[in-house]
Structures are given as structure tokens and as C-alpha cells.
Amino acid sequence: MKRLAILVIVAALAWSGFWAFSAWAQKRAIEGWAEDRRADGWEVSYDDLAIRGFPNRLDTTFTGLLLADPGSNTVWEAPFLQVLQMVWSRDHVIIAFPDEQVLTRDGARYEMSSEGLRASLVRDDGYLLRAHAEADVLNVSGEAPLALSDLTAAIDRLEGEDRTYRVAVNAEGIATGGRISGGGDDGLRLDSTVALAEPLRPETYADAQPTRIEIRRAEIGMDALQLAATGELDVDEDGYPEGELSLRVENLREAIEAERQAGRVPSEVLSLIESAAQLLAGLSGREDTIDLTFEFRDRRTWLGFLPLGKAPQLH
């Protein structure tokens, strides 16, 4: 019995030492990352960095966090951020976001408020295996205000692939600058597959270069307006797409009238949109439905036989 008690005490002390070392190593790694970013010209600051969670977890909490990347002219500010993980599973983290945060890009300020915004990320040997996010409500104010409800988003690496990912987004409600609509067809839905030139690492996601994009379903519904898109695009080494993208717009006339009544868009702009919509609907052969197929070839964009200019560069 005495030997058992000694073994339990020794094991407890060993585990305590292991946890303390893991917490110390975690803090050193974060501070090292911050110093590396500062050496690259970033501004990285936080009022406090605390690691808790003994005995089984490493819960890292930042308070007064600010990250500024001069390369992309982007600043992110948050009153706190929590990164949660188990001691024995360092490749699986859960991130809890504050209810209020601010993103500034190219001088434009976007204030984000949310309820239940959190994300999980799983890596495999440093490469992204899957990343999921969800929020009960997400509101973004600024130049292009947006409100989403019951939001879920996911990036999952396909089984047997190391550079191909399924990208899916779903929101049951969506609004731009107004109340979230609640119709049965309202919301946001995306189901797509993206192949990349290199396997994706979370810390270098901004450098990802797509080589193929397949959009099986992309839909946006807001009140009367319904948008849907499908397409398959190959992307060359310079980022120019080759392929087709089909777009359907339904109930545009009703949506324009709703905007006219709401007074959110200048009437002359709405009249211009309305005239263009009537022309495109006539080409589609339907009164209030527009069907368009954009073709991307030779680094240019085409609508049928009409050239629309240079194709978008995706990286």
C-alpha cells in the first residue's frame, strides 16, 4: 500500500512537471512567433498572455490583442482570444472569439459582433486536415454591412488527397444593412472543391494557390432575390482561370423595387441596374430571370461572343 501511494505521488509530480514544461514551451513558442512577426514589420501586442488548464489542458488566453500586417494593410483587434487544446493532442485546437472585434483593411474599418463564434482546427504533421467554424449570429458593419445567422463553415481535406479540399458554407439567414430575412429560400449556401498547388498549412493560408475550383452549389437568397452559380475552373500558374461559370438571377425586378422602397440605394443606380437587367433577361428569354454563362479563356472573360475584359487573377 505504501509503495502504491509513493507511485501515485511520483506519477502526480511527473505529470505536474510535464504540464508545467508544456505550458512554458507553449508560451515561449507564442513569444517567439510574435518576435518573428515583429522582425517582419508586423505590430503584435497584447496586454496579457495566460496559460491555464492544469492538469489536462493548455488553455491560452490573450487579452487586449492587436495584430497588424503592413504587407496587406490589415489590422485586427480583439479584447480577448482563447485557444484551447489538450496537453496530449497539440494538433487539435479550439478557438473562442470575443463578442466584439474590429478588422481594418486598407483604411476601411469593419466592426464585428457575434454570438457563439468559435472554430476548431485539426492538423496532420503541420498540414491542415480540417477547420470548422460556427456562429449563432455574425454581424459586420462598415462599408458593406452584412448580417448572418446560424452560420457554419468548413474546410476538409479529401480522403486520399493531400492538396484537395472541400469548402462548404451555410447560413440560414442573411441581410445586407437591414434585418435578417426569414424566408424558406433565404440564406447562403456553398458546396465546392478546391485543389491547391501545395498542401495547406494554417500559418501560410494567405499564400495558397488554387489550381482547380469546382462549384457544385453556390446560392444566396435575400427576400425576393435569388442568386445561384455553378462552374468548373482550372487555374494557371499565374492565377488566371480557364473554364465556365454559370449564374442565375431570379426575381431581380421585385428585389429592385424593394430597394427603391427602402431607399438604401440611389434611384439613378437602381434605374441603371433595372435597364441592364431587362436587357439580360431578354437575352435569357425570360421576363424576370437572368441566365448567364461566363467563359474564361486566354486570360480574358467572355459572355457568349462578347469580350468583357481581363479575367480575374485569383493569386
Structural account:
- With 315 residues, the chain is of the alpha+beta class.
- The protein is built from 3 helices and 18 strands.
- The chain has helices spanning 2-39, 252-262, 267-284; strands at 43-45, 48-52, 57-69, 74-86, 89-96, 100-105, 108-115, 118-124, 127-141, 146-157, 164-175, 187-196, 210-222, 225-235, 241-250, 289-297, 300-303, 306-310.
- The chain has a 6-stranded antiparallel β-barrel with strand order 4-5-8-9-7-6.
- Helix 2 runs antiparallel to helix 3 (267-284).
- The protein is elongated.
Describe the secondary-structure layout.
Layout: H1 2-39, E1 43-45, E2 48-52, E3 57-69, E4 74-86, E5 89-96, E6 100-105, E7 108-115, E8 118-124, E9 127-141, E10 146-157, E11 164-175, E12 187-196, E13 210-222, E14 225-235, E15 241-250, H2 252-262, H3 267-284, E16 289-297, E17 300-303, E18 306-310
Antiparallel strand pairs: 1-3, 2-3, 3-4, 4-5, 4-6, 5-8, 6-7, 7-9, 8-9, 9-10, 10-11, 11-12, 12-13, 13-14, 14-15, 15-16, 16-17, 17-18
Helix pairs in contact: 2-3
Multimerization status: single chain
State the shape.
elongated
Query: End-to-end span in angstroms?
Result: 67 Å
SSE sequence, one letter per element: HEEEEEEEEEEEEEEEHHEEE
Q: What's the count of strands?
A: 18
**Percent range of helical residues:** 10-25%
Largest sheet geometry: 6 strands, antiparallel, barrel
Radius of gyration computed on alpha carbons: 24 Å
Strand % is over 45%
Low-confidence sequence ranges: none
Q: Helix/strand-derived class?
A: alpha+beta
Helical stretch count?
Answer: 3
Order of strands across the main sheet: 4-5-8-9-7-6
Whole-number average pLDDT?
Answer: 86
